[in-house]
Amino acid sequence: MEIPPELVEWVASEAQQPTLVVHPSFIPPSAVDDLAFYHPGFGGGLTHALRHVLGRDDNNRYFARADSLSGNWHEKMADVMQRLRLYPTVEKGRAVLIDDQIGNQPTGEMHGWKVVHWKVAKGRDSNLDVVHQDFITWAKAGEENVVSLFSWRPYLTAVIQPANEGAILSKGSR
Amino acid sequence: MLTEQQLTTLAQVMTESSHVSRFIDVGYTYLGQFIAHDIVPQTNPIPGQSRDVLPYLNMDSVYGSGAQTATLLDAHGLFPIKRQTPQGPEDLPRTNGVPNIPELRNDDNVIVSQLHLFWQRFHNTILRRGYANDVGQARAMSTLTFQLVVVEDYLRQVLAPAVFDSVFRFDRRWLNLPSRPIAREFAHAAFRFGHSMVRPFYESFPNQPDVTLPELFQTNRNLDPRLELDFRRMFGWPVLNNRVEDAMTIDPFITREMRQVPIPTGVTINIAEMNLRAGAQLPPGKAYVQQLLAGPNGAKLAAAFGVQPLPDLGPLTGRLPATSGITIDNLPLWPYLLVEAVHASEGKHLGVVGSLICAEGLANAIAGASHSIYCGRWCPVDEVLSSLGKLGEELQEQRRAFANAAYTDRTFCLRHVIELVLRNN
C-alpha cells in the first residue's frame, strides 16, 4: 500500500526496522514519580523500540499506528500505544499527528493517571538534530493535566518546515 | 575475581534502574523463588532454623520430609489453613506469627507465602474432592502437577526456546551438571536470574492499589488483609497483553529497592551484593563459557546453539565507571548470564548458557524426585494428567475450557490449576 504524502515522514516503510526512543524525554515534576515507571525513555538500561505503520479507518482515512514495540514497554503503556490512531493534521502551520479520542479508550490508569490526548510533532534534541516527539496529555482526578514527552529517531531524514510554508515533507532516505 | 571495591561498585550499578517486560506475568517471579526454596539451600543458613534441603523437586518445602509431614497436617490429612479473624484472609498456620511450615524462607514475603498457601490449598482440594485416597497419594499428585507447571509453564517462558526443546523434548543433556550436591553454577549464579524480575511496586493486590516492594516483607506476621492476593491477577492466560501485571526484564538491572531487603535476623541485605558474594568461588562468566567450549561437548554446543563468549558488557557498558576495572573478562557468572539474556532476547528470556544451566539443574531436580514426570524420558502433559485419575480429568477439563488455539507453546499452565482450586473453593 502506498503511503499517502501527509504520512510518508511519520510511518515506516515495509523495509524499515523499528526506531528507538532517544533523548530527550520529560515528565513534569508533579507526575514524574507516578509515571516514570511506565514512561518510555525513563529507567535507563534497555532502549525502547517502536515502529509506526499505516492504518486506515472505516471512512478510508489514513492514520499512523504503532507496532513492533520492544518487550520492555510497560504493558499498560503498550496498550495505549497500540490503540492510538494518529491522524495527520496541521497545527499552527506545522504538520503533526493527533489522536484526540484516546481518552475514550479503555486504557489502564497508571498510578491514577490516564492518557487523554496524544500529539506527535517534530522537535530537536540537544544536538539540534531533528527528532519526532510524542506529547502525551495525562489526566488524574484532583490534579491538573500534565503533558509528558518522549522522542524518537525519524524513519526518514526530517526537516522542520517554517510555520508559514505548510507541511511540505522531505523524502530523503535515511 | 572481583575486589571488594569492584563488587560493591557492580552491585551499586546493577541496582540503579530496571525495566518491565511485557512477556512474563508478575507471579512467575515468585514462582521461581518458591521453586528455588524447594531445592536450593539457604545462602546464609540460620542455625536451628534452616532445614536440610535436598536437591530434588519433591515439594519438601511444603510437606517436609519423613515423619515431619504428619506434624503439619490435621487428623484428616489436611493442612490446617485458618483465618486469623472471621473476616480476615486465609493464612498459613502460625504460632505467634511464626508459620508452621518446613521452609521458613517461604515466609520471606507475602507473595511467596501465599504461593505456599496455594499449594496447601491444592493439597486440601485433592483430598476433599476425593481425587486421592490418602495423604501420600495427594502429595504425589501435587508434586507431579507442580513439576508440570515448572516445566511446561515456567521453564517454557524463561528458557531460550531451543534449549527448552533440546532438554525437555529431546531429553538431551549438554553440561552434565551433578545432581547432588546441586550444581554451584545453578544455585549461586544462574537460578538467581529471578531477582532481576522483581518489581519496585505491585498493582495486583485487590485491596490496595499500590504495594511497594518493602511492604511485601512481612516475615513472621499474620497476613495483612490488605495484602491478600488474587492469583488470577498474578498468573494470566498464556497470551500477550493479557492485562496481567508484568515482571521486569531478565537483565543486569535490579530494582533499587532490592538494595535493602530485610531478613529474619533483623538486618537488611543488598540482594545484588549477596548474589555476587555467593558466586565468588565460580569462574567469571566468560571463563565459564570458554571452559564449556573447551570441554567434551564444546564443539556440539557451538554448533547447536552458537555458544560463544559475549563480546562486551552490553547494557552495562557506559554505566560502570571506566576506572572500575570491571570488564567482560572478569564479570562474575551471575551478571554475565543476565547480560547474555539481553544479548539473546532483550531480556525476554535467558540466553543459551543461562538456559542450559537452569534447564539441567531443574531437570536433575525433577528426575531425582520420588514422584517425577521424568521416567527415563519426559512424559507428555496428557500422559501425566491421565495418570492422575479424576484430578487429571478435571485439569484436562480446565485445559479444554481455557485453551488458546493461537498460542500452542504453553498448553498447561498454573492458571489452569488456579481455576481448579478457586472453583472448588
Describe the protein in words.
- The complex is a heterodimer of chains A (174) and B (425).
- Chain A has two helices and eight strands.
- Chain A has 174 residues and is mostly beta strands.
- Chain A has one domain.
- An eight-stranded antiparallel beta sheet of chain A has the order 3-2-1-8-7-6-5-4.
- Chain A is globular, with a radius of gyration of 16 Å.
- In chain B, the strands form five sheets. A two-stranded antiparallel ribbon of chain B has the order 1-8. In chain B, strands 2-3 form a two-stranded antiparallel sheet. In chain B, strands 4-5 form a two-stranded antiparallel sheet.
- Chain B has one domain (16-283, 346-424): Haem peroxidase domain superfamily, animal type (Myeloperoxidase, subunit C, Orthogonal Bundle), CATH 1.10.640.10.
- In chain B, 42% of the residues lie in helices and 6% in strands.
- Chain B has helices spanning 4-14, 27-39, 60-63, 68-72, 110-128, 135-158, 161-169, 184-187, 213-216, 271-278, 285-294, 298-305, 333-345, 352-367, 381-386, 389-401, 414-424, and strands at residues 20-25, 82-83, 90-91, 94-95, 98-99, 201-202, 211-212, 246-248, 261-262, 268-269.
- By secondary structure, chain B is mainly alpha-helical.
- The chains are: A mainly beta (174), B mainly alpha (425).
- At the A-B interface, helix 2 of A face strand 1 of B.
SSE order and pairing:
The complex is a heterodimer of chains A (174) and B (425).
Chain A: E1 19-26, H1 29-35, E2 49-56, E3 62-67, H2 75-83, E4 87-91, E5 94-99, E6 114-124, E7 130-139, E8 146-152
Antiparallel strand pairs in A: 1-2, 1-8, 2-3, 4-5, 5-6, 6-7, 7-8
Chain B: H1 4-14, E1 20-25, H2 27-39, H3 60-63, H4 68-72, E2 82-83, E3 90-91, E4 94-95, E5 98-99, H5 110-128, H6 135-158, H7 161-169, H8 184-187, E6 201-202, E7 211-212, H9 213-216, E8 246-248, E9 261-262, E10 268-269, H10 271-278, H11 285-294, H12 298-305, H13 333-345, H14 352-367, H15 381-386, H16 389-401, H17 414-424
Helix pairs in contact in B: 1-10, 2-5, 5-6, 5-17, 7-14, 11-12, 16-17
